[in-house]
Design a protein that fits this description.
alpha/beta, binds BIS(adenosine)-5'-pentaphosphate, about 50% helix, about 220 residues, 9 helices, five-stranded parallel beta sheet
Amino acid sequence: MKNIILLGPPGAGKGTQAKRLEEARGMVQLSTGDMLKEAIAKGTDLGRRVEGIMARGELVTDEIVIGLIEARMSDGARGGFIFDGFPRTLKQADALGELLSRTGQSLDAVIEMQVDDAALVARVTGRFTCGNCGAVYHDVTHPTRVAGVCDACGSTNMKRRADDNEETLKTRLMEYYKKTSPLIGYYHAKGQLSAVDGLADVEVVADAIAKVLDKG
Ligand code: AP5
């Protein structure tokens, strides 16, 4: 069993690779972004509290996301957890360390997905997902085989995100560089960081991640 973090800016490909790892290795993706979007879609109190913050591209509070992760971790994961979009601040990283040690688990790898900003604009503005199963597509690099129909589950319920526009991406990137990128040094210092080229083809990125996972 391996517990890993996928670390990278918005659009780096974290969700795409997390879904592949779930299928290939029986790991469980814990995406705080997806949990928050689900709360918004359901119209819960939490959803109402975070909707505006997320639409502006800012981070929600540490307490909210730490609580979400703690609740989901209690379900366990035989194949290990993939933390996708969490932690995003040093406080969240410390909280994750405490949660893992309290439950007798370890963090086996932190994989930094390196992508330059110019590529991220094209990635997020072309992204759409299946509203039924969560499969991730792109207008140019990964369209569905039949227009408007999900390859994975056949649903025609395709969605685009409110924060996937050039203007909001600027704020999301600023938040990443200010609050999340310090985690690169944090995990490097702990000897847990590995970097992969996130600009490569999806398959090549997947192979690079597999190499990191199979190393230790
Ligand atoms: P979240 O949902 O986590 O968004 P994000 O980090 O901005 O990441 P994305 O989902 O945009 O990108 P991704 O790296 O998963 O890329 P993907 O695989 O989809 O967070 C949303 C918001 O929630 C935040 O702004 C914040 O407000 C809040 N939030 C969430 N977690 C939080 C936390 N811990 N603390 C505080 N606030 C939090 O790929 C993108 C596109 O590129 C797709 O179209 C895909 O097909 C394509 N693609 C992927 N890989 C490749 C490749 N190798 N080559 C070509 N195209 C590719």
